[in-house]
């Protein structure tokens, strides 16, 4: 095991290379630039390629293009770059090409605040491209160590599901210095629960694998299989004849290969949820760390408060919200995004509340004040706001 | 074409989905003929296509490996693919004027800068014809289209003083040429040179769109009219007259004079890898 005191950016790079990433396409953007820099140093040492593109749209197209040629590839960015991924992200979904995308969320919209954490891309990561008719896989770490581990998991899932996987981090994870353990031996990898999958390729004779099964290799160009990667609705022969029947089959595949195998993807952490808590706090990413401390301290004071931390955000883990209680959803945005999913997933009669903050983490004191208000049935109204924020 | 088509194209895609009378087939045929003359096999080529008539009607026609990219982005897809695919295969792209000179132009410039091996055949129907006939970046002055109903008033990129091929030359392209689709054997010869350049080649070829361009600009879908209209306005470089819009021939041939992007990158990577392996073994 190698130990470092390093940034999340460094940890993500280590994870990607361990997972077999051999091409990274970058475009400088705060706070993900260091991933590109670390990749440019480390990839060539293992025979991999760092390429830099003229914009994020081209960067992800290069990464997907290389993935369509059989390499395991990755790209990393932040919000303003993530929206420019929309085009190639759609291409990768439609062509069913494995690739890993990292988004280190900062404060938006648009350029916003570059060096501070946000969580405004919760829905954007669910719908990274236009048109609908697909499911996406999104994993959200809350530490540098977990960012490394989930990057490896993202490569694993992308291969098994033939689809892009997004690791949704934030500025504090990627920029922050933390203790990181990088496994070296197979035993160490296994002990960490890491999973790996090799790239294989579809042997034909069809243009691509016309199935909703997982664990079927993706199309790889350059193997002389007569393969086709196309952004148009393919028929089973691969030609675009724009039939509704063909589109139904294609959409079904893109949706249900993920929905039908959700148990392989779902990850979460729960704390004190088995004794009918009066409040369940819900949070992902870095705010979940101060929320967790607040929940533990509240328990020490005798308050019945629990916590749910979704780690896989999409498909959304509805099944975690089976209790009828008060939910407090804590997010790094003011508009309230994940809270809407919790409202949808929680049983009728539950109370759904929202605590939003952006650019900095909620404090333990703020959490305790909020718990108290909820327990006393007082409204949650941020200072200066006329209504409860959500 | 029949013998060539049987060897190189998918039977399912012949005849193509282009409108009858469309000149795109001439561009497509010239390229397949060039590949046949050079004795390429189906396995030697990965063929990419873009959006619009030019991409759509050549989509999935190649009997080997194919891809169809998002609008204007086939160039970065090709740059990534070029690194991953076997060195001895070539990338061919058939794209439109809107794709290469509009939405994808920045990517074309960077493909030229890096001298990435790809032969880009820009099949130019003088505007956006698959969407009904709007003006584009090569539409001649005064021409009526669905979005220039009073005549095209903007300058374009085939004017001698601001030719897109000049820009691409300065950007680093190593092979550049222009033709009209009825150039026949001359177009085939140019394409053979383009494909043999181990770097970035672009051949700009104007072809007649009978359905939309001809209807809007000439008031008639008569194929002979538009074929002659284009032919009369094309002349080989050095033989141009006052009426010439398209000066045809090879504009720039620096084939194989600069390192190819993916090969240069692979060389650098293998040097670095060796250096660190050596250091590691000390
Ligand atoms: S619209 Fe014009 S360019 Fe397009 S296929 Fe028809 S004739 Fe050809």
| Number of helical segments with 4 or more residues of chain B | 11
Distance between the termini of chain B: 61 Å
Output the structural class of chain A: alpha/beta
Most residues in contact: chain pair: A-B, 50 and 40 residues
- Following the backbone from N to C, one meets helices and strands of chain B in this order, namely HHEHEHEHHEHEHEHHEEH
Q: How would you sum up the global shape of chain A?
A: globular
**Proportion in helices of chain B:** 25-40%
Radius of gyration of chain B: 19 Å
Q: How many individual domains of chain A?
A: 2
Number of strands of chain A: 16
Report the CATH superfamily of the largest domain in chain A.
Answer: Thiamin diphosphate (ThDP)-binding fold, Pyr/PP domains
Structure description:
The complex is a heterodimer of chains A (390) and B (282). Chain A is globular, with a radius of gyration of 21 Å. Chain A has 14 helices and 16 strands. The longest helix of chain A is centred in the middle third of the chain and has 18 residues, at 144-161. Chain A folds into two domains: 2-191, Rossmann fold (3-Layer(aba) Sandwich), CATH 3.40.50; 269-375, Rossmann fold (3-Layer(aba) Sandwich). In chain A, helix 1 crosses helix 2 (33-42). Chain A has 390 residues and is α/β, with parallel strands linked by helices. Chain A has helices at 8-18, 33-42, 56-68, 79-82, 86-95, 122-126, 144-161, 171-175, 186-191, 244-259, 262-265, 287-300, 338-345, 364-375, and strands at residues 2-7, 23-26, 49-52, 73-77, 99-107, 113-117, 137-139, 164-170, 177-182, 228-230, 268-271, 279-282, 305-310, 312-314, 326-331, 351-356. Chain B has one domain (3-280): Thiamin diphosphate (ThDP)-binding fold, Pyr/PP domains (Rossmann fold), CATH 3.40.50.970. Chain B is built from eleven helices and eight strands. In chain B, strands 2-1-3-4-6-5-8-7 form an eight-stranded mixed β-sheet, sandwiched between helices. The longest helix of chain B is centred in the C-terminal third of the chain and has 21 residues, at 261-281. Chain B is globular and about 75 Å long. Classes of the chains: A alpha/beta (390), B alpha/beta (282). Chain A binds chain B through residues 23, 25, 43-49, 51, 53-55, 57-59, 61-71, 73, 87-88, 90-91, 95, 207, 221-232, 237-240, and chain B through 12-13, 43, 46, 59-60, 63-70, 73, 75-86, 89, 106-107, 109-110, 265-266, 268-270, 272-273, 276. The structure holds iron/sulfur cluster. Residues 18-19, 22, 24, 53, 57, 125, 129-130, 209-212 of chain B line the site of iron/sulfur cluster (SF4).
